[in-house]
Specification:
Shape: globular
Strand content: under 5%
Helix content: over 70%
Number of helices: 9
Distance between the termini: 36 Å
Number of strands: 0
Structural class: mainly alpha
Order of helices and strands: HHHHHHHHH
Length: about 210
């Protein structure tokens, strides 16, 4: 199995990566600030599910297809950009106070979860990153490559999910502090729409 020093080095790398403002983290913070802790944690369940998919794909070698076939990479990239652009439009459209000045309605748990999964899955750069990261810490002389990759994947999932949980809690506290501010619900949702739009543009321009 994996040597302890190698595993510790990998864990340290995962911590450094987990606190970097990558699209998933930005998405979770914006979603929580706009719609609260519940929305943040349901979205976190979705992004984590998508991340598990990327980890398994890397462990099984499926991510290599995206690297080997540029058309497949672009197809996933443009699908992700289109989905995020659609989320930006619908979120901005819904960011309007209801009659009597009440806040916009929150999305259902199922909608939040699916959005989290798709936001994570439709980012091909994550798949290629996993493909580039794992081989650096896998030593075929120490046992099965798949088993080592799964151990590394499980480690990364726990670390990333843990860091994302802390960020969701921090964002929820920020929302609680400003919840009483006039028009906060409307403008925070517009901020979320802006985040979706920025992520869509980033995917389109990515090379």
């Amino acid at each position: 199995m994996i040597a302890l020093d190698t595993w510790l080095l990998f864990a340290a790398a995962c911590v450094a990566l987990a606190i970097t403002p990558v699209p998933n983290l930005v998405y979770l913070v914006a979603r929580t600030v706009a719609q609260g802790r519940r929305a943040g944690f349901v979205s976190l369940a979705g992004t984590t599910t998508g991340f598990v998919g990327h980890v398994l794909a890397a462990a099984l070698g499926l991510s290599a297809l995206l690297a080997a076939i540029p058309v497949a990479y672009d197809a996933v990239r443009y699908a992700g950009a289109a989905y995020l652009a659609w989320l930006a439009w619908t979120t901005w459209r819904d960011a309007k106070p209801l009659a009597g000045g009440s806040a916009p309605a929150s999305a259902s748990a199922g909608t939040l979860y699916r959005a989290g999964v798709l936001t994570s899955v439709l980012n091909p750069k994550v798949a290629l990153f996993q493909l580039a990261l794992f081989p650096q810490f896998v030593d075929p002389s120490r046992g099965g490559v798949l088993a080592q990759s799964l151990v590394l994947g499980a480690t990364q999932i726990v670390i990333v999910a843990g860091c994302d949980t802390l960020c969701v809690l921090a964002a929820a506290d920020l929302k609680r502090r400003f919840a009483g501010a006039s028009r906060w619900a409307v403008w925070s949702k517009r901020l979320l729409a802006g985040v979706f739009g920025a992520l869509a543009v980033r995917l389109v321009l990515e090379r």
